[in-house]
Structure formats: structure tokens, C-alpha cells
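Re: that chain you flagged

S.,

Sorry for the slow reply, it's been a week of failed gels. I finally had a moment to sit down with the sequence you sent. For the record, here it is as I used it:
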Amino acid sequence: MNKTLAAVGCFFIFISAFLFGVKHITAAITISYVNSVQTNYFAGGYESIETGITFWTILSLLFGLLLLVYSLWGNVRKLRGTK
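Prediction finished late last night. Pasting the C-alpha cells below so you have them in one place:
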């Protein structure tokens, strides 16, 4: 197991989780000054953020998972008994 690659993979997964949380917080801040109880503006807050942060969140998650699986692949092969 390459511990450095595993650590970098976990770091990118953490960045992905952080960006996902930032997206929700940004949408909440965007609609915080709306003074209507009967209307749900949270979906509108998401539309104002667009897809930029979603793209980087998914890219970071996929890259982190790729690095994590690659770093653990040697141990999986040893456990299965294949070379």
C-alpha cells in the first residue's frame, strides 16, 4: 500500500465534501434575505450558484477515489492471491 497516495486520495475526498458543504451554505446565504414564508427559494439559490462548484466537487471526488483505490489495489491483489 502506498500511504502517500492514500493520504492524497483522502485529502481530495475531504476537499469534495468541503465543496459540497460550501454549495449548501452559499445557497442558504443567497436566500437568507427573502421575507416570504410560503415560498421555497432554496432551489432558486442553487440555480444562482450554477454548475461550477458541482463540477469541481465531482471531479475532486472521482480523483480522490481513483487515488485511494489505486493505492489499495496491491493489498487487494495480495488478499485474492493473484499477481
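What I noticed first: The mean pLDDT is 83.

Talk soon,
D.
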